[in-house]
Amino acid sequence: MAFELPDLPYAHDALGSYMSAETLEFHHDKHHLAYVTNGNNLLKDSGLADKDIVEIVKSSHGNNAGLFNNAAQHYNHLHFWKMMKPNGGGNMPSNLEKKIIEDLGSIEKFKADFINAGMTQFGSGWCWLSVNNGKLEVSKTANGENPLINGASPILGCDVWEHSYYIDYRNARPKYLEAWFDNLVNWEYVTELMEDAI
Ligand code: MN3
Questions:
Q1: Residues with Cβ within 5 Å of ion ligand 1?
Q2: Cα–Cα dist 123/162, whole Å
Q3: Rounded to the nearest whole angstrom, what is the distance from the C-alpha of residue 102 to the centroid of ligand 1?
């Protein structure tokens, strides 16, 4: 299936100073669009054009680097926009909270581990919460890679490419990660993804 750029699920200025309209104009309207455009060009002759996005990401990994990079980034950003909402962060639904405590120790430990994964990802990449064999785990990946390639299902991912934070936070990646976690995460969407993956 050809890739399409979805509209943002909120206005460009809806996330306030935590992620500015200028950042979203570049990040969604230009960077994500480029992954869609380049991905569609590479998809044409790949033999995967009739597959869905998850299949394309998994099948291109390790044998079609150009397609993989663009398809994986398309997948990552499709979810990234929905993983945020205006006035996000704060309390999470109780079934997600319970599962995090069960698998990862505590909410505080999960937050610290997630932020640490984002901080210690050298160069561009992502930090993740995913479901792997029914259990939650925190991880980080380089560039466009994501937990799908390890057989896990990502349910929360924070983009730590500089294009995601440099306009609003300059080089302060830890400050961005903290603000993102506390003020932007759409925990209801994360919970939906968890319920689908378990
Ligand atoms: Mn990005």
A1: 159, 161
A2: 9
A3: 31
Domain of residue 145 covers 94-197
Over its length of 198 residues, how does the chain's per-residue pLDDT go in tens digits?
899 999 999 999 999 999 999 999 999 999 999 999 999 999 999 999 999 999 999 999 999 999 999 999 999 999 999 999 999 999 999 999 999 999 999 999 999 999 999 999 999 999 999 999 999 999 999 999 999 999 999 999 999 999 999 999 999 999 999 999 999 999 999 999 999 999
Tokens of 102: 């069960």
Name the domain boundary from 82, 102, 121.
82
- What CATH number did the domain enclosing 55 receive? 1.10.287.990
Domain annotation covers residue 13: no
10 lies in some domain: no
Ligand 1 centroid to Cα of residue 180, in Å, is: 14
- Quote the CA–CA distance of 99 and 19 in Å, as a whole number: 29
